Amino acid sequence: MGDAGKPQVYSIAAHRGFADALVAGLVPRYEEEGLGLARLTLLVPSSRAARTMSEAFIRWCGENDRAGMLMPRMVTVGDLNLDESLGALLDPLGASDIPPAVEPTRRLLELARLVEEERAGLGKSPLPGAARIRLASEIARTMDRLLVEGKEPEDLTSDAVLDMLGDLSGHWQDSLRLFARVQARWRSRLEETGHVDAATRRNLLFDRATKRWRAAPPGTPLIAAGVTSASPALARMLRAIAHLPNGAVILPDLDLKLPDEAWDELGRAGATPEPGGEVFGQSDALTHPQYHLKLLLQRMGIARAEVKAWHRRGITAADPARSQAISSLFLPPKASRSWVDLGPEKRRLAGVRLLTSATSEEEAQAIALLVREALDEPTKRIAVVTADRSLARRVTQHLERWNIGADDSAGRALSLTPAGRLIGLLADIMSHGLAPASVAALIAHPLVQRGDDEARRQWLRNVRKFDRALRGPTPAPGLEPLRQIAREAGVVDWFGEVETILSPLVDLPEAITLAQSLDLLAASAERLAAEAVWAAEDGRALSRMLEDLRHHAREISTSVSPSDIASILRDRMDEVAVRPPYGGHPRVAILGLLESRMARADLVICAGLNEGSWPQAPGSDALLAPGVLRVLGVPGAEFRIGLSAHDLAGAMGAPEVVLSRSLRDADGPTLPSRFILRVEALLGELADRHRDDRTPAILPLLDREPEPAPNYPRPRPKPSAAQRKVRISATAIDRLLGDPYQFYAQEILSLRRLDPLAADPFGDPALRGTLVHDILDAWHKAREANPSLEIAPFAERMFAEAKVHPLFKGLWQPRLIAAMERFEQWVDEAARDGRTVLVTETKGEMVVDGITVSGRADRIDRCADGQLVVVDYKTGGPASASQVEAGYALQMGILGLIARDGAFEKGKLSGEVATYEYWSLGRSKDDGEFGYQSIPLKMTPRQKGLTPEKFLPTHEEFLSTAINKYILGDAPFTAKENPDYPGYSDYDQLMRLEEWIVRLGEDGEGAS
Fold first, then answer.
1. How many CB atoms lie within 10 A of CB 828?
2. Rounded to an integer, what distance in angstroms lies between the CA atom of residue 143 and that of residue 139?
3. How far is CA 34 from CA 1, 31, 70, 398, 1002, in A?
4. How many CA atoms within 13 Å lie on the side-chain side of 197?
5. Which of 760, 276, 269 is nearest to 474 (CA)?
6. Distance, CA of 85 to CA of 69 (rounded, Å)
7. What is the DSSP string of 679-702?
8. DSSP for residue 713
9. CA atoms 298, 302, 306, 312: torsion sign
């Protein structure tokens, strides 16, 4: 492709469009001879790049009215992530002299075992299974990073590393020591098995190919296109290709017009000032988009002046004038001073727009609108490039409003797919027990019973019944509390099937083999969803991951705790990307940064240009300090920022470009990307001309503005006379008078609050009240046969039988028992004064004007003079005398009226009530102990409330008003009729409180 003896290295400028420009130059040269292009071999960086090249050849055929062609052979050589196959060219069957690579999963599990053994040797405590595997994964990544750079274990003990060891903190010293010991043992293990690491094998294959091609150049053309990885072994192979008679290396967007001063300012980039010196200086511009290309050229031994510009332009080539501005945009600090002298014509970015949205949701809507608008041009292709996967999903969803199916080629983590979520929920149950939220999510999962529509309908009917009964305070651990809930819901037979599926996952031993746990999870998943769990692309990916992990875990006998299974699986699934089957719109692509390399479209939308997204925050190596990496000659974490900058520079070469960001995301305010700040700084006063104000203005007009809703009035339902005639409980009288709408919703409509799943087990007063009342009731009844029965051991037994949640038991049992012990003292003291306990938890009723009024008394005592005492137990603070006087707490007075005018114990108990007492289990303000008494009566002139003489007459008036006004009358059940009434908020949403409460008092609105 050029002069003999000179390296054939080319650069395709960003504005030309790499893939299309490459095809435009290759086809005319190689299609003339016989098979033509079929004799050509292209080395590309990834399988996605091979797909991009194939699409470019197809476009070329369409543009040139060609029915088809034999395309060249494409071989993927991998990238910095080592996640692509090498291809048959570099991994031939005849390469028997190169050891096979160890399986990645096997290496991970064996490293985890070595980590635990070495930590034990260093006197450190064992790590949980999930943390152990995470540390092994970090060690594997660091090993690969060093191997890619050609570093051997002995380099860690070089003089340069040892000299700086004393300057490192203790944390870094410990990490380096552990890493070195594990790596040394791992290398010994590889020698025993005859394997090598995958990165080592890749280097050996590269070197083997390099030697072969130098000794006997291939007779067919060989071109490396778009390969930018600067690993030494790959750089040596690229050098060999560049010197082949029929070879060439074609780089993407090497800036040939960058001034020499700016090129030198990038730093050493592998060129040491003296033998054995550091190849990366502290001032190297690792974040510059040209840095990794300079590093590649240095390792290839080729000067930038030897690189030639590609002679062809692609179908989607842009104005070449923009290349000057893009080059100036990313100048290093000193060279950026030239911006002062740049004229407007050299700073103009024609065809580039800046789009700023208020939120990430609005950004997704705006991008979808831009895509929809661009599709009106029949041949226009659009690419949305973003590293923010959540933003990519939003864009995909918004495009569906126009029936545009766009595939996110970067895929999504396996853990977020239906199959991954199903196995994840099962793993959560294995690790954390039968938590209500996990159980409810699992049994309602969309894959469960998916193969049989009728069976799934019946299954979901049972799920809804069980879910309704499951709501409320979190039950105690184990299957028995869930069985009881299933009995209450009337789905015992159905839950037996669920129990059969879940029982193998609970009550496991403290240690279990990883393979056995995966067997249990897979079996349970198949019982729930049969083949549906493995059917789709996510299921197939899950099957491959589980089988791989299970196979190697069984061979190595990896043992873990069941509590670690959920974390281990989630970590593994997060590293598996499930990509769509590519059935979306042919002219719309949603790409990640890796997928966007070499791709080109007429309109490229670079989205999510915020710090932490593009560029992503550089993650430092967890095991080797930055100084150690620099001494070893390994690029630091900032190197990735340079790759992100190069991705942006390449994308900005498209004919039309939109640079988009949002001011806020789900986490709060965002910081603009350093790249977009440079764009605005370069444009200066021209920036306003490039801002896209039109798209944000259109967004509010996408949907027809709804008719303004009329003001919602304050609810005043007026049921019929027949509907009003309901029983009234003693606890409902104050609610009827204070907030009639609550009474209407609860007693007439029979609506009850739906509790959440997994409600706070120790913050629910109803749970405490029910349990305390049951214990005290049972204790009083038991004392009839055993008067000396102590309450503390009795209550402890009932707590155990109730199987309350451990959190509730730990927090409330001690204080409740302490209060009940004081209750026992008061009962015994009252008994010595002639007061006896007559009944507990007794029901009573009376009839007033034909309406039945009922109530339940916690306890009724009889004094020595024959009069009664009504006792009410409170787990919180009791009602005050002033609340009783205001009509906000009428229960005790109504119980007194029932005792006087009706009866308790089915008509067997009645009489005059001498006094009323609240026995609270709360902390006393007087002595700080749990348990105290109060009386809701005005006993002294200084107290507030009702005197004993006025207590029952006042309650009679309240009761008469309530019955005659609402039950027998026709008064509306007005919402919040008494705004001072401290009622519950269970029905606020039903009454649409927020829509009318603000208008109370306006022009008579809301007047009662």
1. 11
2. 6
3. 18, 7, 11, 49, 90
4. 25
5. 760
6. 26
7. HHHHHGGGHHHHB--HHHHHGGGS
8. P
9. negative
Rounded distance between C-alpha atoms, residue 554 and residue 907, angstroms: 72
State whether residue 352 is helix, strand or coil. Answer: strand
What single-letter amino acid sits at 31?
E
Contact by Cβ (8 Å): 501, 529? no
DSSP annotation of 614: S
Residue 532 Cα distances to 526, 539, 548, angstroms: 8, 8, 20
Q: Which helix (H) or strand (E) holds 756?
A: none
Give the total residue count for the chain.
1008
Sign of CA dihedral 518, 521, 527, 532: negative
Number of other CB atoms surrounding residue 94 within 10 Å? 5
The one-letter amino acid at 46? S
> Rounded to the nearest 10 degrees, how much is the dihedral formed by the CA atoms of 211, 214, 217, 223?
80
> Alpha-carbon distance 518 to 547, whole Å?
9
- The pTM (predicted TM-score) of the whole model is 0.84
Q: H or E stretch including 575?
A: none
The string over 635-672, giving b where at least 16 C-beta atoms fall within 10 Å of a residue's C-beta and e elsewhere, is bbebbbbbbbbbbbbbbbbbbbbbbbbbebbeeeebeb
H/E/C letters for each residue in 634-670? CCCCCHHHHHHHHHHHHHCCCCEEEEEEEEEECCEEC
Name the residue among 593, 599, 650, 589 with its Cα closest to residue 616.
Answer: 593
Token output for 695: 């798209």
Count of CB atoms situated within 10 Å of the CB of 257: 10
Q: List the beta bridge partners of residue 384.
A: 590, 605
8 Å CB contact between 875 and 866: no
How is 925-968 classified by DSSP, letter by letter? TTT--EEEEE-SS--STTS-S--HHHHHHHHHHHHHHHIIIIIS
Is residue 945 within 8 A of residue 936, CB to CB? The reply is yes
Q: Provide the residue type at 273 as one letter.
A: P
Q: What whole-number distance in Å separates Cα of residue 32 and Cα of residue 576?
A: 43
From CA 167, how far away is CA 160, in angstroms rounded? 12
**Which residues neighbour 227 within 8 Å (Cβ) at sequence distance 6 or greater?**
43, 44, 45, 77, 234, 238, 249, 251
79: left (phi over 0), alpha (psi -120 to 50) or beta: beta
Nearest Cα residue to 37 out of 19, 48, 25: 25
Please give the structure tokens belonging to residue 858: 């916690």
What's the helix, strand, coil split of the chain in %, to 5? 50, 10, 40
Helices 47-63 + 18-30 axis angle, to 10 = 60
Task: Report the distance separating Cα 881 and Cα 883, nearest Å.
Answer: 5
| Residue from 762, 1000, 734, 703 nearest 891 by CA | 734
pLDDT along the chain (1008 residues), means of 10: 75 89 90 76 89 89 83 78 49 73 93 92 86 93 90 83 81 88 93 91 90 91 92 93 94 90 87 71 86 93 93 79 84 85 79 94 96 93 93 93 87 92 96 91 94 91 94 84 92 94 91 93 94 93 95 93 94 90 85 86 94 84 84 84 90 93 91 93 88 91 81 93 93 92 94 81 70 91 91 90 76 88 93 92 94 94 93 88 88 94 90 93 87 89 87 94 94 91 86 88 51
Classified as helix, coil or strand, 974 is coil
Provide the pairing of β-strand 577-578 with 412-413.
antiparallel
Maximum alpha-carbon separation in the chain? 124
- Are 637 and 631 in contact by the 8 Å Cβ rule? The answer is no
Strand bridging mode 903-904 / 836-848: antiparallel
pLDDT at position 82? 38
**If residue 902 lies in a helix (H) or strand (E), which one and from where to where?**
none
- What 3-state DSSP class applies to 595? helix
Q: Is the dihedral of CA 110, 111, 113, 117 positive or negative?
A: positive
Dist CA 172 CA 166 (whole Å): 10
